[in-house]
Amino acid sequence: MPVWFLRATTARTRICLLFTLLTSLLSQAKTTALVTLYPIPQEVSSSHFLVSVNGRITPVLHAAANYYMLNFDTGGAATISVTASNTHYWDAGVEVQPMRLGIRPRRNGATITFDITGPVKLSITRPGDHFAESEMLFLFANAPDQSGITAQTPGVRYYAAGVHHGSINPQSGDTVYLAGGAVVFGALNLWQVHDVKVLGRGTIIYNGPQSPDRDEGWMHKRDWHVIVMDNADNIVIDGITGIVRSRTWMVQMRDSRHIVFRNVKIIGGGPGNANQDGMDWLGGGDTLVDDSFIRAADDIFAMYGNWDGYEEKALTMPGHEVSNIVIQNSVLSTSISNVVRVGWPKKVFDSHGFVMRNSDVMHMGFGACGAPFALFEVWADPEGRGEHSGYKFENIRLEDWYSLVQLRQPNPSVHDVTFQSIWAMDGPGMVPSVLKGDIYGVSLDGVDTGAGNALSDADLPLAVEAGAGQPTYKRAWLDASFDYSHGLLRPGKKIVFKARGPKDKRLHYHWLLGDGSTADGQKLHHVFPDTEGTLLDGSGRFRVLLHVWDDAGHNAWSSQSLVIASRLHPPVTPDISPATTPSNSGILDRYVRVPADGGYTFTLLTSMDATLAIDSIEPAHSPSARAQVCGSQGNAVQPIRMSAALSKGWHHIRIRRSGGQDNATNSRSNGPLLLWQGPRLRLQPIPDTAYFRSAP
Predict the structure, then answer these.
(1) Alpha-carbon torsion (601, 620, 371, 289), positive or negative
(2) What residues does the PKD/Chitinase domain cover (predicted)?
(3) What is the SS3 assignment for 616-648?
């Protein structure tokens, strides 16, 4: 028995692990995929999680902060089990992302088990646990390495499994190979070189001398980032993992072009929760990022033209053009800030030709740094200048997200920006989008933030300010909306799902039903097994996703929450006596008319310390407050979500808020921003007509 098994687990956890081993061995009998596990050096090995892949058990690699990871190769399907060192670790639930995979694990004490169909990049956490202080496990199931490189391959700088100290400094024409299980403590410096390949399944860990209290990570020099390029050309980086433990920009490229990142994993975490950008372009471009994973602690992708410090002269010095960047088929996450940022106040440079497509945005920053965090932000307000054009976001799936777009450039100009086929997979954005300044040519085609196609500013919502041009809106090419059986939905009850799209042989319908089941076809019957919910959190809320595509390559997604429960909560009689709650108490009482029997999910958006209560059901509480940064006032807006099966009629809602100004914006009234979703109700703010009364 391995030493890490005996040393690192309690007796009860060992029992769970042995059960997992037996379960995995039974599953392995049905699985023929070849799995390759790589050794993990003792210096970075952790038994905080033990992972079984088709019955083969391994510890994980401690990456950075509270993040853990495992790389392995698989030629096809595999059964995965994860056993935590704490027996009760998963008691409050578990979340496996990206959501498009529809994974709900099977839970047995400290162990969760699920199946994958092939190569995939996963984030595994407890529900809502995706900020800087969170514990996160990243699993990377790679396709088998087809390079054929071994230690005997001529002309290759080969790093074997084990620990290596010292940075990698390739020369022009070099091929560098990091074997699976190789861990290099240092940096990859691609300094004024060309025609370099860095391949393999190994890992580079960078932990530099940067201050944890301020940004020194911008400095452009060797051994200051996990990967740095200076005037590099024709570079291929394929399969490796880069980890950053200190406060520095992670992958920094200056005036470099013809760059390919493929199946690259970049993970950053550490003190300060800032300035661990995923990838930065200081001039240059012609870059492809394909099938990659980034967990950042700042902007995931940022374009600046140059960066030589925060002094006035350095900030205002004109930078070089950034152009022709493609991000595709990737999985993206950050603890703070934006997915894509262009510019900074006082920065002067041009950029054009950026495409992001077919990617999962699992986690976006919550809050603001001058402007709210977004999928795409240009923040040059007030003195930045430059022409930024030809930006396109296509087939993007938004999971935990803050806002869609923040374009704030008073000086010329930002134009020709397209959002096409964008879907919120499980909830709304927290704050409105903004176009401000010399902005024009913005189009939103098939954008669905949870309520269906956005066809107006109010649908998104979006504010047009300070001379910005009005954006255009179009419907999605395909309709992925669907209906389901109404009334009380109990475990074991047959539920009918039907897509609203036309019956057409060229259309394909794929359902992910939130309980780990999938199905195909325009119409189906399904039985839910329990009231645990998709996140195994006991909420009864199941996230049902429908993916529709056609033979021409068009895609559409739709998401709805179903509530599976054993009974309906009865209606109440509204209290028509004079309100006695003082107006300054921070408590608001309302009665809302539920239109039909069934399961409803209520979402309160607020930056305050708050609780949401419905009838006599145990209230839901706000998450821990998250202060905004860079001088932005107050805390980030966050959701409070509550699901319940309710009878038709009046139900009492009580909202308690405290702690200053609420940064959530309610364009419909002065009250809290409360949304609902249920039978025949897409996610939307509760209309005033649904309320009986409210306390003053």
Answers:
(1) negative
(2) 479-567
(3) CCCCEECCCCCECECCCCCECCEEEEEEEEECC
Q: Does one domain contain both 554 and 630?
A: no
Residue 576 falls within a domain, yes or no?
A: no
Where does the pLDDT of residue 693 fall: very low under 50, low under 70, confident under 90, or very high at 90 and above? Answer: low
Longest dimension (CA), the chain: 87
Q: Which of 29, 61, 48, 10 lies closest to 18, judged by CA? A: 10
User: Could you tell me where the DSSP H helices lie in 256-389?
Assistant: 312-316
Statement to judge: residues 441 and 550 lie in one domain: no
Question: Tens of pLDDT along 339-366?
Answer: 999 999 999 999 999 999 999 999 999 9
Instruction: Report the chain's mean pLDDT, rounded to a whole number.
Output: 94
SS3 state at 19 = helix
Same domain, yes or no: 420 and 387 = yes
Tokens 């109700």 appear where? 681
User: Please, is 634 exposed, middle or buried when counting C-beta atoms within 10 Å of its C-beta (0-12, 13-18, 19+)?
Assistant: middle
**What span, in angstroms and rounded, lies between the C-alpha atoms of 72 and 547?**
28
- Separation CA 417–CA 471 (nearest Å): 9
Say if pTM beats, i.e. exceeds, 0.90.
yes
- The reply to whether omega before 98 is within 30° of 0 (cis) is yes
Range of the domain at 91: 3-75+86-142
536 vs 337: CA distance, rounded Å: 29
Q: Which residue has the tokens 């993007």?
A: 396
Three-state helix/strand/coil letters over 268-303: ECCCCCCCECCEEEEEEEEEEEECCEEEEECCCEEE
Element (H, E) at 73: strand 67-74
Q: Whose CA is closest to 52, among 106, 132, 131?
A: 106
CA–CA gap between residue 310 and residue 215 (Å, rounded): 10
Sign (positive/negative) of CA torsion 499, 500, 505, 507? negative
Inform me whether the pLDDT recorded for 579 exceeds 70: no
Residues 543 and 662 in one domain: no
231 token code pair: 């005037």
Pick the last residue of a domain from 420, 444, 474: 474
Which pLDDT value is given to residue 660?
84
Describe the chain by its helix, strand, coil percentages, rounded to 5.
Answer: 5, 50, 45
> If we measure between CA atoms, which residue out of 222, 176, 223, 182 comes closest to residue 204?
182
List the structure tokens of 214.
């301020």
* CA atoms in the 13 A half-sphere facing the CB of 393: 23
Q: Are residues 469 and 490 in the same domain?
A: no
Instruction: List the one residue out of 172, 171, 159 whose CA is nearest residue 205.
Output: 159
The pLDDT value given to residue 667: 73
Q: Is 579 part of any domain? A: no
Cβ neighbours of 369 (radius 10 Å): 21
Q: Judge if 299 and 409 occupy the same domain.
A: yes
Structural domain tally of the chain?
A: 4
Does one domain contain both 372 and 430?
yes
Tell whether 215 and 183 lie within a shared domain. Answer: yes
Report the candidate in 343, 338, 390 with the shortest Cα–Cα distance to residue 361.
Answer: 338
User: CATH number of the domain that 465 lies in?
Assistant: 2.160.20.10
Give a yes or no: residue 568 inside a domain.
Answer: no
Residue closest to 58 by CA, chosen among 143, 268, 66, 48:
48
What are the helix (H) ranges across 413-510?
none
**The pLDDT of residue 535 is above 80:** yes
